[in-house]
Amino acid sequence: MSAKKTLTKKKVTALKSLSAKNKKNAKKIITTSAKKIKKIVLTKTKNKPVALKSLSKKNTPKKVIAKKKPVVHLKKTIVKTKPTAVAKTPVVKAKKISLVKEKKIITHTEKKEDITKVVPAKRTRKSSKKTIITIAPPPKIDVSNYPKHKIKTLLVSQPKPQETDKNPYLDLAKKHNLNVNFRQFIKIEGLSSQDFRLQRIDILAHGAVILTSRLSVVHYFRMCDEMRVTVPDSMKFFCINEQTAYYLQKYIQYRKRKIFFGHGTMLDLVDVIRKNKDEKFLLPVSDVHKEQIVELLDELKITYTKGVFYKTVSADVSDMKNLNQFDLLVFFTPAGIKSLKHNFPNFKQGSTRIAAFGHTAALKLKELGFRLDIFAPNPQNPSMSGAIESYLKEANKR
């Protein structure tokens, strides 16, 4: 009982000596159990080893000291560091701000230097792409100044159209009272599968096909059937015009395929071919074809294979005894002009006028020693029927 009284007296003296600020912390210590207070008092006495023996394992002196430290020492450190921190902080912030500004200026100048180096490189690339598209202009075709006599009969080297079909040459006949005859000077023969295998072309090794006409469409799928090759759905088709693209509906489902088409020339397909330059292209052609298409593909620097799928052969027109009975002969291909020379080797032109469509046909006509009277396409008349009509307006006036 005497020991408890001494402890209570010490508590009262301790409370009086404490400041008003630390009263709250002191009250928390007093509310602890009497056993803990005894242990704390015993640790302060001289008989330390005896006091340590009486302590339990849970409340070791290390944990007691750890609880006392934040009460006493933390408040002292906070009071001491506050004035020093306030004095030093403005100096440190000023240094950091200055460093950040210097860094921003350096990085900004570096970006400007990078832009000036990259911009001219991009412009040169764009100009180089334009040079790829450029094709050598076609040669100039000179038309003869032969006197323009009246035309009554003309022969068109095309198959005879059906009665239901609209034909511009039949419209010319009605308008100018002409006698129009149709006769095909050439015929198309598909290459046999044996002859095609000699070219060593694997159709399925190509992921895209360039189709320049309906004939190329017909003979491409004909060859696939003969060689028992199924065209995959992933195959891409690049058609020269919309009519050729729609003609594919006879062989494939139009919706499920990737089909691209131009407006009549290969230049319209240049941008689309560039986007798919990783593909390997197949170009089905005849044995007689335009070299401009091949030159364009070479300039685009894409991987492609030119394969002969069909050939043009001279048709037998020997039943026509005399060509001089016609006032005008109309040809569309160099193969047709070759057939003219083959079937009529002794033909002399005389007053018979000859019209040729396309530069290759016109050059072939002059090469074989014939005279060119009408040429198309020209700036005034893009079609052959239009060029003939403009000639008739001058010749049939007399």
Number of helices: 14
Unreliable residue runs: 44-132
Give the overall shape: elongated
CATH topology of the domain at 188-314: Rossmann fold
Mean pLDDT: 75
Q: Please tell me how large the radius of gyration is.
A: 50 Å
Note the beta-strand portion: 5-15%
Q: How many individual β-strands?
A: 11
Characterize the main sheet. 6 strands, mixed
Q: What distance separates the N and C termini?
A: 155 Å
Binned, the helix content reads 40-55%
Major β-sheet strand ordering? 3-8-7-4-5-6
Going by CATH, the architecture of the domain at 188-314 would be: 3-Layer(aba) Sandwich
Based on helices, strands and strand pairing, what is the structural class? alpha/beta
H/E series = HHHHHEHEEHEHEHEHEHEEHEHEH
CATH top level assignment of the domain at 188-314: Alpha Beta
Account of the protein in words:
The protein has 398 residues and is of the alpha/beta class. Among the domains are: 153-185 and 315-395, Rossmann fold (3-Layer(aba) Sandwich), CATH 3.40.50.10090; 188-314, Rossmann fold. The protein has 14 helices and eleven strands. It has helices spanning 2-17, 23-30, 34-44, 48-54, 61-133, 168-176, 193-197, 214-226, 242-247, 270-275, 291-300, 334-343, 359-367, 384-395, and strands at residues 153-156, 179-182, 186-190, 208-211, 236-239, 258-261, 281-286, 304-314, 328-331, 353-357, 374-376. The strands form two sheets. The chain has a six-stranded mixed β-sheet with strand order 3-8-7-4-5-6. A five-stranded parallel β-sheet has the order 2-1-9-10-11, sandwiched between helices. Strand 9 (328-331), helix 12 (334-343) and strand 10 (353-357) form a beta-alpha-beta unit. Helix 3 (34-44) packs antiparallel against helix 4 (48-54) and helix 12 (334-343) packs parallel to helix 13 (359-367). The longest helix has 73 residues, at 61-133. The chain is elongated. Mean pLDDT is 75; it is low at 44-132.
